[in-house]
From TrEMBL:
Keywords: Guanine-nucleotide releasing factor. One of its GO terms (molecular function) is guanyl-nucleotide exchange factor activity. The keyword Coiled coil does not apply. It comes from Canis lupus dingo (dingo). This is DENN domain containing 1C. The keyword Ligase does not apply. Residues 1-204 form the UDENN domain. GO terms for cellular component: cytosol.
Length: 204
């Protein structure tokens, strides 16, 4: 947990120019057994705080949508509603593939509409498709066909691959999309979608 803030802000907050929009990006924490825990981040433009969800489940669309809902509630100063949403979610059993969860707030004062969030558990055991998979869509938009083929070949050969981008959201989407292209195989080596300054030695 002590390392999480360094991954949520993998740049100098004082020197980095603020992004013009909300950025969604991820990082990965790997334990000694090789099990990965993903961090899903929601960073508003010019913000000095970051919303982050840690999970072993690679459910990008689900957690980004949840972070958007939490961010909207906080922006409207609806802290109790945000806490209710998260507590409601924690009480739900883990859904099966393609199963949906609907979260509805308790009765609100007159004139205040209840919030409604619906999440569908993705199928992580199949090849992703466009446009349903935001990571793959981002990869196709940001990277040329020739470079995608070269990246795929490098991953098959288990080469060390370094990706860089001007936006954190684009960077981490392309990293995870590249790994997803290996289906039905999996990338078993070191995976660092976001590289904070204290881990730059991994580049050498």
């Amino acid at each position: 947990m002590q390392m999480v803030p360094k991954f949520c802000f993998p740049f100098d907050v004082e020197r980095e120019p603020p992004s013009p929009a909300v950025q969604h990006f991820t990082f990965a924490l790997t334990d000694l057994s090789g099990t990965r825990r993903f961090g899903f981040c929601h960073l508003r433009a010019g913000a000095h705080s970051c919303l982050c969800i840690l999970s072993h489940l690679p459910w990008f669309e689900v957690f980004y949508k949840l972070l958007n809902t939490v961010g909207d509630l906080l922006a409207q100063d609806q802290v109790s509603e945000m806490e209710e949403l998260l507590l409601n979610l924690l009480q739900q059993p883990l859904p099966g593939t393609q199963a949906s969860i609907e979260l509805v707030s308790s009765p609100q004062p007159l004139g205040v509409p209840p919030w409604l969030s619906c999440f569908v558990a993705p199928d992580s055991g199949r090849l992703p498709s466009i446009p349903e998979n935001r990571n793959l869509t981002e990869l196709v938009v940001a990277v040329t066909d020739e470079n995608i083929v070269g990246l795929f070949a490098a991953l098959l050969a288990e080469r060390r691959v370094l990706l860089f981008a001007s936006k954190l959201s684009t960077l981490t989407s392309c990293v995870h999309a590249s790994c997803a292209l290996l289906y039905p195989m999996h990338w078993e080596h070191v995976l660092i979608p976001t590289l904070p300054p204290h881990l730059l030695d991994y580049c050498w």
